[in-house]
Amino acid sequence: MPASQHQNPKSDIEISQTAKKRRILDIAKEKLGIQPENLDPYGHYKAKVSMDYVKSLKDKKNGKLILVTAITPTPAGEGKTTTTVGLTDALNHIGKKAMLCLREPSLGPSFGMKGGAAGGGYAQVVPMEDINLHFTGDFHAITSAHNLLSAMIDNHIYWGNALGIDSRRVTWRRVMDMNDRALREIVCSLGGVANGYPREAGFDITVASEVMAIFCLAKDLEDLKERLGNIIVAYTRDRKPVRARDLKAHGAMAALLKEAIAPNLVQTLEGTPAFIHGGPFANIAHGCNSVTATTAALKLADYVVTEAGFGADLGGEKFLDIKCRKAGLSPDCVVLVATIRALKMHGGVAKADLKKEDLKALEAGMANLQRHVENIKKFGIQPVVSINRFSADSDAEIKLVKDACGKLGVEAIMADHWAMGGEGAVDVAKAVVKICDSGASKLKLLYPDEMPLFAKIETIAKEIYRAKAVTADKSVKDQLKTWEEMGYGKLPICIAKTQYSFSTNADSKGAPNDHVINVREVRLSAGAEFVVAICGEIMTMPGLPKVPAADSIDVNAQGQIVGLF
């Protein structure tokens, strides 16, 4: 943990539970000018902002948009969400009107290996335990909407199958927001004629659902319903697509999501307003919070800080090439988060040895940071490097990173928001404001809409991952051509691959070059309006680790959650 941890041994949840929170109605009114009648409170400290109010903001001027992303993740930790929170608090420290937008955490990682996703130390959003558990029920609504469609598919087949669905070509799996490897592949409808026609099926985790992706890309309820209707759920025997609207499912699905689509307002430990809304995985989907929340925030604050999942090559690229393309957004600055520990790990140091000074390994690991800086600049955006400070970071190591970043034309700034809150990220905030106000960043998308689908995959693989080639079976290429003929050729690409490497080999650290990316499968998300290219081994239903976080989570006699991160 960062430098001052030894001075404050409190866990994240202890810090959160002892924090003096303000009523969310007061935060909304004083910080954002939102009157109580435009909020639907969920208790005292969280609320939804009504969609009627969100619509009323459309003619207001946009603030500056700041994207927080990171180097390639390692077990050493980088602290992207913590930086997002600390930076926004710091912007308010220096007199700016700022708010942040984050994804909602999934219960799968919360009870599995990753833990919570509400920041950490003194750079947290609160109430932390609510946010990491059921929150306002959005994920439950998304799960229900998804599974309603599943039920309606099987029901339609049972009652005569007027649409001629080929039960062997049902592509719509069920979901639940939990890690459960036993449900990855199942056989359903067993037990005789009364239970339908037996077929192979399976479960994905809710955050991998196309409904989640649609939820996060939809501009409003009408757009949401239209996209839900466009979901392709199955094919007939002569390979014609069957959509959710053919089953008359999209209206009922939208009804289940009517309340959920409104952005959720909470606060940081320092009382900074925060939208936390939606949460698709970044190694499976596009990995960023909802368009609804981000666009509303830009009307409410002068500076809006948001994050994209995992590294800049994965979540960052999708934020820019999918979310910004679809929503007309353009970041004014990118903050690239790193730690000296993680950079040494990319240079070959084992996790147990990260506290020892190792300039040689750090210099080797800087290749990963350099790659990400180069990639961000390809999009026409000027980055700032924020280095989360740890107690073992030596002066020589800090100097090496700063000097190397200087040669790349970017500023590297040490930050200690974990221990100090917004005060610890003031220098980062000043650097961000300077770039935002300079107008230097002009977003350039990586590829045009008109480029063929396979060429888009090749462009991402070669330009961002530095692959020498992309391979795919004839069936994959033929499928892409079929979708182009169906009118889906202009959709962007969502690469599904490991987050731990530029390559598809999770163990290949640093900045590998000239590797081969194999596309083993492609999936059409017709409602979300992107094509998923699955590269390497990707689990859409994760499993729990040997010792899951759930082992330590409990509720005490006073009714408080304990052991949650």
Summarize the structure.
This protein has 565 residues and is an alpha/beta fold. The strands form 6 sheets. Strands 1, 2, 3, 4, 5, 6, 14, 15, 16, 17, 18 and 19 form a 12-stranded mixed sheet that branches. Strands 20-22-23-21 form a 4-stranded mixed sheet. A hairpin with a 4-residue loop joins strand 12 (232-236) and strand 13.
What does this structure look like?
- With 565 residues, the chain is α/β, with parallel strands linked by helices.
- Helix content is 35%, strand content 19%.
- The protein contains 19 helices and 25 strands.
- Strands 1, 2, 3, 4, 5, 6, 14, 15, 16, 17, 18 and 19 form a 12-stranded mixed beta sheet that branches. Strands 20-22-23-21 form a 4-stranded mixed beta sheet.
- Helix 4 (80-93) packs across helix 17, helix 7 (138-158) runs antiparallel to helix 10 and helix 9 packs antiparallel against helix 10.
- The longest helix is centred in the N-terminal third of the chain and has 21 residues, at 138-158.
- The chain is globular and about 70 Å long.
- The chain starts with 11 loop residues before the first helix and ends with a strand.
- 54% of the residues are buried.
Uncertain spans? 1-7
The fraction of residues in strands falls at: 15-25%
Helix content: 25-40%
What do the pLDDT scores average to? 94
Structural class: alpha/beta
Largest sheet: 12 strands, mixed
Total helical elements = 19
Topology:
Blueprint: H1 12-17, H2 24-32, E1 39-41, E2 47-49, H3 51-56, E3 64-70, H4 80-93, E4 98-102, H5 107-111, E5 119-120, E6 123-126, H6 128-132, H7 138-158, E7 165-170, E8 174-176, E9 186-188, E10 199-201, E11 203-205, H8 210-217, H9 221-229, E12 232-236, E13 241-243, H10 250-257, E14 264-268, E15 273-276, H11 291-300, E16 303-307, H12 312-327, E17 333-338, H13 340-346, H14 359-378, E18 383-388, H15 395-407, E19 412-415, H16 417-420, H17 426-438, H18 453-463, E20 469-472, H19 474-488, E21 493-496, E22 516-525, E23 530-535, E24 554-555, E25 561-562
Helix pairs in contact: 4-17, 7-8, 7-10, 9-10, 13-14, 14-15
